[in-house]
Structures are given as C-alpha cells and as structure tokens.
Amino acid sequence: MSIVAVVLLAAAVVLLAAAEWPRLSQRVGFDARRRRERRLAKSHLRVVHDDDPEDFAKAVERDLANLPTFDPRAKRDAKKD
Questions:
Q1: Is residue 72 one of the residues assigned to a domain?
Q2: How many CA atoms lie within 13 A of 10 on its CB side?
Q3: What would the pLDDT profile of 16-64 be if each residue is shown by its tens digit?
Q4: Which residue in 29, 49, 51, 67 could disulfide with 25, CB within 3.0 to 4.6 Å?
Q5: Mind spelling out the 3-state secondary structure of the chain?
Q6: Count of domains observed in the chain
Q7: Band of the pLDDT at 79, cuts 50, 70, 90?
C-alpha cells in the first residue's frame, strides 16, 4: 500500500468516527458507563406494595421513637449539679 492510500484510509476512519460520534458516545462514553452501573445496581431493588397504610404509620412512629436523641441542655444541667 502506498502512503497516500494509508492516509486516505486513516482519514476515512476519522471521518466515520466523527460522523457516528453521538451514537458511539451513548454506548461507550462515560455517561453510558454510569447508566450501565446504575441499571445493574437497580436490578437488585424491588418495589414492595403494602395495602395497609396504618402499618406504615405504625412503623414510622416506631422508628422515630427508636431514634437516638441529643439534648444539649441536659449536658449543661449535669455540670451544674
């Protein structure tokens, strides 16, 4: 192959890649990788349907009651004793 043919072939490859770049970037770009990772992570999730809203309210109340609390005044009052 002559140098001219190699240069023309390289130019054709570059021109083709530039013309198809939007479609290629969707499949091999950084955003595509993030989408694939997110889809993989989401594949393990599932939606749980609950017919009784009272169970949900009770669960929320129970979780809120079990949260640790912090009272800054309690520490101050303990120092005064």
A1: no
A2: 7
A3: 988 988 887 777 777 778 888 888 888 888 887 777 778 888 888 999 9
A4: 29
A5: CCHHHHHHHHHHHHHHHHHCHHHHHHHHCHHHHHHHHHHHHHCCCCCCCCCCHHHHHHHHHHHHHHCCCCCHHHHHHHHHC
A6: 1
A7: low
User: Domain range holding 50?
Assistant: 3-67
The answer to whether residue 38 is domain-embedded is yes
pTM score, whole prediction: 0.37
- Asked if residue 57 is part of any domain, the answer here is yes
Q: pLDDT by residue (tens digit) across 52-63? A: 778 888 888 999
Task: Give the Cα separation of 7 and 45 in Å (integer).
Answer: 51
CA dist list (Å): 16 to 12, 24, 43: 6, 11, 35
